[in-house]
Amino acid sequence: MKQGIYLLVMVLFLAACQSNSKKQTSTETKSTEVASKKWTQEQADAWAEENGWLRGSNFNPSTSINQLEVWQAETFDPETIDLELGWAEDIGLNCMRVYLHHVAWEVDKEGFKNRMNQYLDIADSHGIKTIFVFFDDCWNATYQAGKQPDPKPGVHNSGWVRDPGDLIYEDPELVTTLEAYVKDVLTTFKNDGRIAIWDLYNEPGNSGYGNRSMPLLKNVFNWAWEIRPAQPVSAGVWNASLTDLNKFQLENSDIITYHNYEGPEKHQAAIDTLKTRGLPMVCTEYMARLNNSYFQNIMPILHKESIGAINWGLVAGKSNTKYAWDEPIPAGSEPPLWFHEIFHPDGTPYSQEEVDVIKSLTGTE
């Protein structure tokens, strides 16, 4: 989903051993620290046994440009969600990773949670569990409720928005709202068996934030521990250079989640590093064709290693993630090689060979 190259190799494991000596900013003090309620090894192993091999996509319905368009009452699209998750079911996918946004909750708290429940009903009807994502440091820094921008032709994720983005540095009191949001959602769904994982923070430190994201990262884990949902909480590692953030994420997540858009050798190196921790693992982002990360060469590795396999993108649509991160096509014409996504908007596979590989691994041939 992001710009840059993700090298999760041995340096990540070594970085996890370093101490975090960075001074924290004032936003961290807005939440009282609670004792860690991280799962035991036994709890993590029991979760892995119950859920089996998770495989699926990061899911944004093709009619939505971003998280706000997904969840706002005016643009929530259950018909498209049902249709597209049906295509996922047909090829044996059983888990979707779905982003939330605090503004949609802030505008309409009960309606937002009702729409989450409606989404979960639809997904469950297709045998699909859900990974919900709270915060995100990627793409556009500012946002507002209401009508969302139209896509920029040929530009990857032109309308995707961060959460909370720059606003948390401009309005320190925002953390009070974010705390209420996270705790309300977790309290409502903390025992919901349709939810596989709570992904607390997508790519903390991206967009040049670096360690400025640490206070919110620590806060969201504290809030989650205070509620302590029945599902695992995690924040995926994604960039080996963010050593302080990586250390905190790896030490405090119930299960290990990570992103890797590299080819087989580098992806395997990341796996070999991370699995030394002995916890269940889920790759929550992979599959970027221009980076030699394909279903054909990565998904079999994840299947063999019993690592959850959640690729970026299900159906090409308004998010424009069939276009590469750094290679816009302003005319909006078809890219020579799709970057992400499995299906055209009419449900036709981008590549029948890819779908055949997926179906062979999921046992739906």
TrEMBL record:
Transmembrane segments: none annotated. InterPro entries: GH (IPR017853). Gene3D superfamilies: Glycosidases. Keywords: Signal. It comes from the Bacteria. Residues 1-21 form the signal peptide. This is 1,4-beta-xylanase. It comes from Draconibacterium orientale.
